[in-house]
Amino acid sequence: MTDGVLVVGAGLAGATAATSLRELGFDGPITLIGAESELPYERPGLSKGYLAGSTPADALRVHDAEVYDRFGIGVRLSAEAVALDADARKLSLADGAALSYDDVVIATGSVNRRPPLPGMELSGVHQLRTLAEASALRSAASSARTAVVVGQGFVGCEVAATLRSLGLDVTVVDPMPGPLWALGAEISARVARWHDDAGVRLRNDVGVASLDGDSVVTSVTLADGAVLPADLVVVGVGARPATDWVSGVDLVDGAVAVDADGRSSTPHVWAIGDAAAAWDEQTGRHRRVEHFDSAIVQGQRVAHALVGAPSPAGGRSWFWTDQHGHTLMHAGVHGPDDETIWRGESVAFWLRDREVTAVAAIDAGRDFRRAMKLIGKRPAAADLRDEELDLRRVSAG
Amino acid sequence: MTIHLPADRSPREGEMVTTEVDGTIVAVARVDGALYAFADECTHQGCSLSDGDLEGRHVVCPCHMGTFDITTGSVVSGPPPEPVRTWPVQEEA
Question: What is the ipTM of this complex?
Protein backbone atom coordinates (compact mmCIF):
# COMPACT_ATOMS: atom_id res chain seq x y z
CA MET A 1 0.00 0.00 0.00
CA THR A 2 2.40 2.66 -1.15
CA ASP A 3 1.22 3.71 -4.58
CA GLY A 4 -2.01 5.17 -3.26
CA VAL A 5 -4.96 6.40 -5.25
CA LEU A 6 -4.84 7.88 -8.73
CA VAL A 7 -7.84 10.02 -9.58
CA VAL A 8 -7.90 10.37 -13.36
CA GLY A 9 -9.91 13.42 -14.36
CA ALA A 10 -9.72 16.76 -12.56
CA GLY A 11 -13.33 17.85 -12.77
CA LEU A 12 -15.89 18.19 -10.01
CA ALA A 13 -16.22 14.45 -9.42
CA GLY A 14 -12.47 13.82 -9.31
CA ALA A 15 -11.72 16.82 -7.09
CA THR A 16 -14.49 15.81 -4.71
CA ALA A 17 -13.19 12.25 -4.50
CA ALA A 18 -9.64 13.43 -3.81
CA THR A 19 -10.49 15.85 -1.01
CA SER A 20 -13.11 13.52 0.47
CA LEU A 21 -10.49 10.79 0.78
CA ARG A 22 -8.34 13.05 2.96
CA GLU A 23 -11.31 14.26 4.97
CA LEU A 24 -12.08 10.61 5.69
CA GLY A 25 -8.56 10.03 6.99
CA PHE A 26 -6.92 8.31 4.02
CA ASP A 27 -3.20 8.88 4.56
CA GLY A 28 -1.65 7.33 1.44
CA PRO A 29 -0.60 9.22 -1.69
CA ILE A 30 -3.38 10.84 -3.73
CA THR A 31 -2.70 12.10 -7.25
CA LEU A 32 -5.24 14.02 -9.28
CA ILE A 33 -4.59 13.94 -13.02
CA GLY A 34 -6.20 16.44 -15.38
CA ALA A 35 -6.02 16.70 -19.16
CA GLU A 36 -6.73 20.44 -19.11
CA SER A 37 -4.27 23.03 -17.84
CA GLU A 38 -6.77 24.24 -15.22
CA LEU A 39 -7.29 23.26 -11.61
CA PRO A 40 -10.69 21.60 -11.13
CA TYR A 41 -13.58 23.93 -11.87
CA GLU A 42 -17.34 23.68 -12.02
CA ARG A 43 -18.87 23.64 -15.47
CA PRO A 44 -22.47 24.86 -14.90
CA GLY A 45 -21.35 28.50 -14.99
CA LEU A 46 -19.61 28.14 -18.37
CA SER A 47 -22.88 28.47 -20.29
CA LYS A 48 -24.29 31.10 -17.93
CA GLY A 49 -22.41 33.50 -15.64
CA TYR A 50 -18.95 32.95 -17.12
CA LEU A 51 -20.19 33.28 -20.69
CA ALA A 52 -22.17 36.38 -19.72
CA GLY A 53 -19.06 37.90 -18.16
CA SER A 54 -20.63 38.20 -14.70
CA THR A 55 -18.75 35.28 -13.08
CA PRO A 56 -14.93 35.30 -13.08
CA ALA A 57 -13.01 32.07 -13.69
CA ASP A 58 -11.74 32.06 -10.10
CA ALA A 59 -15.31 31.76 -8.83
CA LEU A 60 -15.71 28.50 -10.76
CA ARG A 61 -12.91 26.69 -8.93
CA VAL A 62 -13.98 23.63 -6.97
CA HIS A 63 -11.30 24.41 -4.36
CA ASP A 64 -8.72 27.16 -3.97
CA ALA A 65 -5.24 26.10 -5.12
CA GLU A 66 -3.91 26.00 -1.56
CA VAL A 67 -6.43 23.29 -0.62
CA TYR A 68 -4.57 20.69 -2.70
CA ASP A 69 -1.31 21.59 -0.95
CA ARG A 70 -2.89 21.54 2.46
CA PHE A 71 -4.54 18.17 1.75
CA GLY A 72 -1.35 16.71 0.33
CA ILE A 73 -2.95 15.99 -3.02
CA GLY A 74 -0.55 15.82 -5.95
CA VAL A 75 -2.02 17.56 -8.99
CA ARG A 76 -0.75 16.83 -12.50
CA LEU A 77 -2.35 19.10 -15.08
CA SER A 78 -2.07 19.05 -18.89
CA ALA A 79 -1.63 15.31 -18.39
CA GLU A 80 -3.80 13.10 -20.53
CA ALA A 81 -4.39 9.46 -19.65
CA VAL A 82 -3.89 7.24 -22.69
CA ALA A 83 -3.96 3.66 -21.40
CA LEU A 84 -4.95 1.61 -18.40
CA ASP A 85 -3.33 -1.72 -17.60
CA ALA A 86 -5.61 -3.07 -14.92
CA ASP A 87 -3.63 -6.30 -14.46
CA ALA A 88 -0.36 -4.50 -13.82
CA ARG A 89 -2.18 -1.64 -12.08
CA LYS A 90 -0.51 0.97 -14.24
CA LEU A 91 -1.76 4.11 -15.89
CA SER A 92 0.02 5.57 -18.93
CA LEU A 93 0.03 9.27 -19.71
CA ALA A 94 0.45 10.95 -23.08
CA ASP A 95 3.86 12.29 -22.02
CA GLY A 96 5.10 8.72 -21.61
CA ALA A 97 4.88 8.54 -17.83
CA ALA A 98 3.59 5.29 -16.32
CA LEU A 99 2.07 5.57 -12.86
CA SER A 100 1.43 2.64 -10.52
CA TYR A 101 -1.59 2.60 -8.25
CA ASP A 102 -3.27 0.71 -5.48
CA ASP A 103 -6.61 2.00 -6.72
CA VAL A 104 -7.57 4.12 -9.72
CA VAL A 105 -10.69 6.28 -9.93
CA ILE A 106 -11.82 7.01 -13.49
CA ALA A 107 -13.34 10.50 -13.54
CA THR A 108 -12.53 11.71 -17.04
CA GLY A 109 -16.05 13.01 -17.71
CA SER A 110 -17.46 13.47 -21.19
CA VAL A 111 -16.40 14.61 -24.60
CA ASN A 112 -18.81 16.53 -26.79
CA ARG A 113 -20.39 14.77 -29.71
CA ARG A 114 -19.15 16.28 -32.93
CA PRO A 115 -21.79 15.79 -35.63
CA PRO A 116 -20.47 14.99 -39.14
CA LEU A 117 -21.79 18.24 -40.60
CA PRO A 118 -20.16 19.92 -43.58
CA GLY A 119 -18.44 23.03 -42.25
CA MET A 120 -17.80 21.84 -38.67
CA GLU A 121 -14.14 22.82 -39.15
CA LEU A 122 -14.91 26.46 -40.02
CA SER A 123 -13.69 29.25 -37.81
CA GLY A 124 -16.59 30.63 -35.77
CA VAL A 125 -18.05 27.18 -35.06
CA HIS A 126 -17.93 26.52 -31.33
CA GLN A 127 -18.60 23.69 -28.95
CA LEU A 128 -18.71 24.13 -25.19
CA ARG A 129 -17.31 21.92 -22.47
CA THR A 130 -14.11 23.50 -21.19
CA LEU A 131 -13.16 26.85 -19.73
CA ALA A 132 -10.97 27.48 -22.78
CA GLU A 133 -13.92 26.84 -25.10
CA ALA A 134 -16.14 29.12 -23.02
CA SER A 135 -13.49 31.86 -23.20
CA ALA A 136 -13.29 31.51 -26.97
CA LEU A 137 -17.07 31.69 -27.30
CA ARG A 138 -17.27 34.69 -25.00
CA SER A 139 -14.66 36.48 -27.04
CA ALA A 140 -16.43 35.65 -30.32
CA ALA A 141 -19.79 36.77 -28.92
CA SER A 142 -18.41 40.21 -28.11
CA SER A 143 -18.09 41.02 -31.82
CA ALA A 144 -20.97 38.95 -33.22
CA ARG A 145 -24.49 40.09 -34.03
CA THR A 146 -26.16 36.84 -35.07
CA ALA A 147 -25.76 33.38 -33.57
CA VAL A 148 -27.18 30.00 -34.51
CA VAL A 149 -27.28 27.38 -31.78
CA VAL A 150 -27.51 23.80 -33.01
CA GLY A 151 -29.25 21.65 -30.40
CA GLN A 152 -31.79 22.56 -27.76
CA GLY A 153 -30.69 20.43 -24.86
CA PHE A 154 -29.36 22.00 -21.68
CA VAL A 155 -26.21 23.48 -23.16
CA GLY A 156 -27.95 24.74 -26.30
CA CYS A 157 -30.80 26.34 -24.37
CA GLU A 158 -28.54 27.97 -21.78
CA VAL A 159 -26.08 29.27 -24.35
CA ALA A 160 -28.94 30.65 -26.44
CA ALA A 161 -30.35 32.45 -23.40
CA THR A 162 -26.97 33.90 -22.42
CA LEU A 163 -26.09 35.03 -25.95
CA ARG A 164 -29.50 36.68 -26.19
CA SER A 165 -28.86 38.48 -22.89
CA LEU A 166 -25.66 39.82 -24.46
CA GLY A 167 -27.75 41.34 -27.24
CA LEU A 168 -27.19 38.84 -30.04
CA ASP A 169 -29.86 37.80 -32.49
CA VAL A 170 -30.20 34.08 -31.67
CA THR A 171 -31.86 31.18 -33.48
CA VAL A 172 -31.88 27.63 -32.08
CA VAL A 173 -32.22 24.71 -34.49
CA ASP A 174 -33.13 21.16 -33.51
CA PRO A 175 -34.92 18.21 -35.14
CA MET A 176 -36.90 17.63 -31.92
CA PRO A 177 -40.32 19.30 -31.49
CA GLY A 178 -39.19 21.61 -28.68
CA PRO A 179 -36.49 22.53 -26.16
CA LEU A 180 -35.51 20.02 -23.46
CA TRP A 181 -37.79 17.54 -25.18
CA ALA A 182 -36.52 14.69 -23.01
CA LEU A 183 -38.43 16.22 -20.10
CA GLY A 184 -41.75 15.93 -21.91
CA ALA A 185 -43.98 18.17 -23.99
CA GLU A 186 -45.40 20.21 -21.12
CA ILE A 187 -42.07 21.25 -19.63
CA SER A 188 -40.76 21.85 -23.14
CA ALA A 189 -43.66 24.20 -23.89
CA ARG A 190 -42.90 26.22 -20.76
CA VAL A 191 -39.24 26.55 -21.69
CA ALA A 192 -40.16 27.45 -25.28
CA ARG A 193 -42.26 30.32 -23.93
CA TRP A 194 -39.26 31.73 -22.01
CA HIS A 195 -37.26 31.75 -25.23
CA ASP A 196 -40.13 33.30 -27.21
CA ASP A 197 -40.59 36.03 -24.63
CA ALA A 198 -36.87 36.83 -24.73
CA GLY A 199 -36.82 36.96 -28.52
CA VAL A 200 -34.88 33.74 -29.16
CA ARG A 201 -36.23 32.04 -32.29
CA LEU A 202 -36.71 28.27 -32.02
CA ARG A 203 -36.62 26.32 -35.29
CA ASN A 204 -38.02 22.96 -34.18
CA ASP A 205 -38.53 19.80 -36.20
CA VAL A 206 -35.70 20.58 -38.56
CA GLY A 207 -32.09 19.50 -38.75
CA VAL A 208 -29.01 21.26 -40.05
CA ALA A 209 -27.75 20.45 -43.54
CA SER A 210 -24.48 22.40 -43.48
CA LEU A 211 -22.49 25.18 -41.90
CA ASP A 212 -21.41 27.54 -44.66
CA GLY A 213 -18.53 29.93 -45.28
CA ASP A 214 -15.08 30.10 -46.85
CA SER A 215 -12.87 29.81 -43.82
CA VAL A 216 -15.19 31.58 -41.40
CA VAL A 217 -18.79 30.52 -40.90
CA THR A 218 -21.30 33.03 -42.29
CA SER A 219 -24.55 31.07 -42.45
CA VAL A 220 -26.29 27.81 -41.61
CA THR A 221 -28.37 25.88 -44.12
CA LEU A 222 -31.22 23.84 -42.67
CA ALA A 223 -32.56 20.55 -43.98
CA ASP A 224 -35.65 22.36 -45.29
CA GLY A 225 -33.45 24.68 -47.37
CA ALA A 226 -33.73 27.75 -45.16
CA VAL A 227 -30.51 29.74 -44.77
CA LEU A 228 -29.81 31.51 -41.48
CA PRO A 229 -27.09 34.16 -41.34
CA ALA A 230 -24.60 33.44 -38.54
CA ASP A 231 -21.57 35.31 -37.23
CA LEU A 232 -21.04 32.40 -34.89
CA VAL A 233 -22.45 28.88 -34.45
CA VAL A 234 -22.57 26.84 -31.25
CA VAL A 235 -23.05 23.10 -31.63
CA GLY A 236 -24.43 21.42 -28.50
CA VAL A 237 -25.73 18.00 -29.43
CA GLY A 238 -24.80 15.93 -26.40
CA ALA A 239 -21.74 14.15 -25.14
CA ARG A 240 -20.31 10.69 -24.70
CA PRO A 241 -18.15 9.25 -21.91
CA ALA A 242 -14.43 10.10 -22.19
CA THR A 243 -13.32 6.48 -21.86
CA ASP A 244 -11.51 5.80 -25.14
CA TRP A 245 -8.34 5.19 -23.11
CA VAL A 246 -9.97 2.62 -20.81
CA SER A 247 -9.61 -1.11 -21.36
CA GLY A 248 -10.04 -4.24 -19.27
CA VAL A 249 -13.17 -2.81 -17.62
CA ASP A 250 -16.86 -3.50 -18.31
CA LEU A 251 -18.55 -0.63 -20.13
CA VAL A 252 -22.24 0.21 -20.65
CA ASP A 253 -22.73 2.44 -23.70
CA GLY A 254 -19.14 3.56 -23.30
CA ALA A 255 -19.38 4.38 -19.59
CA VAL A 256 -17.68 2.30 -16.90
CA ALA A 257 -20.30 0.06 -15.28
CA VAL A 258 -20.09 0.51 -11.52
CA ASP A 259 -22.17 -0.12 -8.42
CA ALA A 260 -23.66 2.76 -6.42
CA ASP A 261 -20.28 3.26 -4.69
CA GLY A 262 -18.34 3.52 -7.96
CA ARG A 263 -16.87 -0.02 -7.84
CA SER A 264 -16.32 -1.59 -11.26
CA SER A 265 -16.15 -5.32 -11.94
CA THR A 266 -12.35 -5.01 -12.29
CA PRO A 267 -10.46 -5.05 -8.98
CA HIS A 268 -9.06 -1.69 -7.87
CA VAL A 269 -10.75 0.19 -10.72
CA TRP A 270 -13.48 2.65 -9.78
CA ALA A 271 -15.42 5.23 -11.79
CA ILE A 272 -17.50 8.30 -11.01
CA GLY A 273 -19.24 11.20 -12.73
CA ASP A 274 -19.98 11.38 -16.46
CA ALA A 275 -17.52 8.57 -17.24
CA ALA A 276 -19.48 6.12 -15.08
CA ALA A 277 -22.81 4.35 -15.39
CA ALA A 278 -23.74 3.65 -11.80
CA TRP A 279 -26.26 1.04 -10.75
CA ASP A 280 -29.59 2.77 -10.11
CA GLU A 281 -32.07 1.12 -7.78
CA GLN A 282 -35.06 3.08 -9.07
CA THR A 283 -34.72 1.93 -12.67
CA GLY A 284 -32.91 -1.34 -12.03
CA ARG A 285 -30.17 -0.63 -14.53
CA HIS A 286 -26.83 1.11 -14.93
CA ARG A 287 -27.45 4.77 -15.57
CA ARG A 288 -25.05 7.46 -16.64
CA VAL A 289 -25.92 10.81 -15.12
CA GLU A 290 -24.21 13.93 -16.50
CA HIS A 291 -25.15 16.35 -13.75
CA PHE A 292 -23.46 18.46 -11.12
CA ASP A 293 -25.03 16.92 -8.05
CA SER A 294 -24.27 13.32 -8.99
CA ALA A 295 -20.62 14.24 -9.63
CA ILE A 296 -20.36 15.39 -6.01
CA VAL A 297 -22.36 12.52 -4.55
CA GLN A 298 -20.42 9.90 -6.50
CA GLY A 299 -17.10 11.52 -5.57
CA GLN A 300 -18.05 11.34 -1.92
CA ARG A 301 -19.34 7.78 -2.17
CA VAL A 302 -16.25 6.38 -3.87
CA ALA A 303 -14.06 7.98 -1.21
CA HIS A 304 -16.11 6.34 1.52
CA ALA A 305 -15.87 2.97 -0.21
CA LEU A 306 -12.10 3.31 -0.72
CA VAL A 307 -11.49 3.85 3.00
CA GLY A 308 -14.08 1.25 4.02
CA ALA A 309 -16.45 3.76 5.59
CA PRO A 310 -20.21 3.19 5.38
CA SER A 311 -21.78 4.88 2.35
CA PRO A 312 -23.17 8.33 3.11
CA ALA A 313 -26.94 8.62 2.85
CA GLY A 314 -27.46 8.79 -0.90
CA GLY A 315 -29.35 11.85 -2.02
CA ARG A 316 -31.47 11.30 -5.08
CA SER A 317 -29.87 12.61 -8.24
CA TRP A 318 -31.30 15.89 -9.51
CA PHE A 319 -30.35 18.76 -11.77
CA TRP A 320 -31.23 22.30 -12.57
CA THR A 321 -31.04 24.64 -15.52
CA ASP A 322 -31.15 28.44 -15.43
CA GLN A 323 -32.48 30.20 -18.56
CA HIS A 324 -33.82 33.71 -19.06
CA GLY A 325 -34.01 34.31 -15.32
CA HIS A 326 -35.98 31.12 -14.66
CA THR A 327 -34.82 28.02 -12.82
CA LEU A 328 -36.07 24.56 -13.73
CA MET A 329 -35.24 21.66 -11.41
CA HIS A 330 -35.83 17.97 -12.04
CA ALA A 331 -35.30 14.71 -10.16
CA GLY A 332 -36.09 11.08 -10.82
CA VAL A 333 -36.68 9.20 -14.05
CA HIS A 334 -39.99 9.26 -15.89
CA GLY A 335 -41.10 7.26 -18.88
CA PRO A 336 -43.15 8.54 -21.83
CA ASP A 337 -46.29 6.80 -20.54
CA ASP A 338 -46.13 8.13 -16.99
CA GLU A 339 -49.08 10.26 -15.90
CA THR A 340 -48.29 13.93 -15.24
CA ILE A 341 -49.91 15.81 -12.39
CA TRP A 342 -49.34 19.54 -11.98
CA ARG A 343 -49.50 21.36 -8.69
CA GLY A 344 -50.50 24.78 -9.95
CA GLU A 345 -48.12 26.22 -12.52
CA SER A 346 -44.88 25.40 -10.78
CA VAL A 347 -44.52 21.75 -9.74
CA ALA A 348 -44.99 18.64 -11.87
CA PHE A 349 -45.16 15.05 -10.67
CA TRP A 350 -44.85 11.99 -12.88
CA LEU A 351 -46.56 8.80 -11.69
CA ARG A 352 -46.54 5.19 -12.84
CA ASP A 353 -48.94 2.77 -11.17
CA ARG A 354 -49.66 5.59 -8.68
CA GLU A 355 -46.00 5.74 -7.64
CA VAL A 356 -44.12 9.03 -8.09
CA THR A 357 -41.28 8.45 -10.57
CA ALA A 358 -40.05 12.02 -11.07
CA VAL A 359 -40.70 15.62 -10.10
CA ALA A 360 -39.91 18.98 -11.66
CA ALA A 361 -40.31 22.52 -10.42
CA ILE A 362 -40.17 25.87 -12.14
CA ASP A 363 -38.99 28.77 -9.99
CA ALA A 364 -40.06 26.83 -6.90
CA GLY A 365 -36.97 25.40 -5.23
CA ARG A 366 -38.51 24.96 -1.82
CA ASP A 367 -41.42 22.95 -3.17
CA PHE A 368 -38.98 20.99 -5.34
CA ARG A 369 -37.03 19.90 -2.29
CA ARG A 370 -40.23 18.77 -0.61
CA ALA A 371 -41.59 17.14 -3.76
CA MET A 372 -38.37 15.15 -4.28
CA LYS A 373 -39.03 13.29 -1.05
CA LEU A 374 -42.22 11.86 -2.55
CA ILE A 375 -40.37 9.99 -5.32
CA GLY A 376 -40.99 6.28 -4.87
CA LYS A 377 -44.04 6.98 -2.68
CA ARG A 378 -47.73 6.62 -3.55
CA PRO A 379 -49.44 9.83 -2.45
CA ALA A 380 -53.03 10.69 -3.39
CA ALA A 381 -53.24 12.59 -6.68
CA ALA A 382 -55.69 15.06 -5.12
CA ASP A 383 -53.10 15.90 -2.44
CA LEU A 384 -50.43 16.55 -5.06
CA ARG A 385 -52.75 18.95 -6.90
CA ASP A 386 -53.73 20.82 -3.74
CA GLU A 387 -51.63 23.98 -3.65
CA GLU A 388 -52.97 24.82 -0.20
CA LEU A 389 -51.52 21.63 1.24
CA ASP A 390 -47.89 21.85 2.44
CA LEU A 391 -46.01 19.15 0.50
CA ARG A 392 -44.35 18.07 3.74
CA ARG A 393 -47.79 17.07 4.98
CA VAL A 394 -48.79 15.05 1.92
CA SER A 395 -49.39 11.48 3.03
CA ALA A 396 -46.90 9.13 1.39
CA GLY A 397 -49.74 6.66 0.76
CA MET B 1 -20.65 40.38 17.27
CA THR B 2 -23.62 38.81 18.98
CA ILE B 3 -27.11 39.01 17.53
CA HIS B 4 -29.59 40.24 20.12
CA LEU B 5 -33.14 39.09 19.47
CA PRO B 6 -36.20 40.01 21.57
CA ALA B 7 -37.87 36.87 22.89
CA ASP B 8 -41.21 37.87 21.41
CA ARG B 9 -39.63 37.89 17.94
CA SER B 10 -37.59 34.72 18.21
CA PRO B 11 -38.52 31.70 16.08
CA ARG B 12 -40.42 28.67 17.26
CA GLU B 13 -38.80 25.23 17.21
CA GLY B 14 -37.85 24.22 13.66
CA GLU B 15 -38.60 27.65 12.20
CA MET B 16 -36.65 30.67 10.95
CA VAL B 17 -37.12 34.42 11.27
CA THR B 18 -35.05 37.24 9.83
CA THR B 19 -33.70 40.38 11.43
CA GLU B 20 -31.57 43.20 10.12
CA VAL B 21 -28.24 43.95 11.77
CA ASP B 22 -26.19 46.88 10.47
CA GLY B 23 -27.71 46.52 7.02
CA THR B 24 -27.21 42.74 6.85
CA ILE B 25 -30.22 40.43 6.76
CA VAL B 26 -29.62 37.71 9.34
CA ALA B 27 -31.67 34.53 9.62
CA VAL B 28 -32.25 33.07 13.07
CA ALA B 29 -33.38 29.46 13.49
CA ARG B 30 -34.33 27.43 16.53
CA VAL B 31 -33.19 23.81 16.60
CA ASP B 32 -33.55 21.59 19.67
CA GLY B 33 -34.34 24.69 21.66
CA ALA B 34 -31.14 26.57 20.76
CA LEU B 35 -30.96 29.63 18.51
CA TYR B 36 -28.55 29.89 15.56
CA ALA B 37 -27.94 32.99 13.44
CA PHE B 38 -26.53 33.00 9.91
CA ALA B 39 -26.41 35.35 6.92
CA ASP B 40 -29.68 35.12 5.03
CA GLU B 41 -27.82 34.92 1.74
CA CYS B 42 -26.63 31.76 0.02
CA THR B 43 -22.96 31.98 -0.94
CA HIS B 44 -23.79 30.49 -4.36
CA GLN B 45 -26.09 33.09 -5.93
CA GLY B 46 -27.34 35.14 -3.02
CA CYS B 47 -30.80 33.64 -2.58
CA SER B 48 -32.54 34.02 0.77
CA LEU B 49 -31.85 30.95 2.91
CA SER B 50 -34.83 31.69 5.14
CA ASP B 51 -37.03 31.14 2.08
CA GLY B 52 -35.71 27.59 2.05
CA ASP B 53 -36.26 24.70 4.43
CA LEU B 54 -34.77 23.89 7.78
CA GLU B 55 -33.98 20.20 8.14
CA GLY B 56 -32.60 19.55 11.57
CA ARG B 57 -29.37 21.55 11.81
CA HIS B 58 -29.24 22.08 8.05
CA VAL B 59 -30.73 24.91 6.03
CA VAL B 60 -31.44 24.22 2.35
CA CYS B 61 -31.35 27.08 -0.14
CA PRO B 62 -34.51 27.33 -2.27
CA CYS B 63 -32.59 28.18 -5.45
CA HIS B 64 -30.19 25.28 -6.06
CA MET B 65 -30.45 23.26 -2.82
CA GLY B 66 -27.13 24.40 -1.44
CA THR B 67 -27.14 23.03 2.11
CA PHE B 68 -25.38 24.54 5.13
CA ASP B 69 -24.87 23.37 8.70
CA ILE B 70 -26.27 26.35 10.61
CA THR B 71 -24.29 25.54 13.74
CA THR B 72 -20.98 26.09 11.92
CA GLY B 73 -21.92 27.67 8.59
CA SER B 74 -20.10 24.92 6.69
CA VAL B 75 -21.32 23.66 3.33
CA VAL B 76 -22.93 20.23 3.62
CA SER B 77 -23.79 19.74 -0.06
CA GLY B 78 -24.60 21.48 -3.30
CA PRO B 79 -23.00 24.30 -5.27
CA PRO B 80 -22.15 26.94 -2.62
CA PRO B 81 -18.43 27.72 -2.92
CA GLU B 82 -17.92 28.82 0.68
CA PRO B 83 -19.45 28.65 4.14
CA VAL B 84 -22.19 31.01 5.20
CA ARG B 85 -21.35 33.45 7.97
CA THR B 86 -22.73 32.65 11.43
CA TRP B 87 -23.09 34.58 14.69
CA PRO B 88 -23.90 33.76 18.30
CA VAL B 89 -27.44 34.76 19.31
CA GLN B 90 -28.63 36.20 22.59
CA GLU B 91 -32.33 36.03 23.32
CA GLU B 92 -33.58 38.97 25.36
CA ALA B 93 -36.66 39.21 27.50
Answer: 0.79
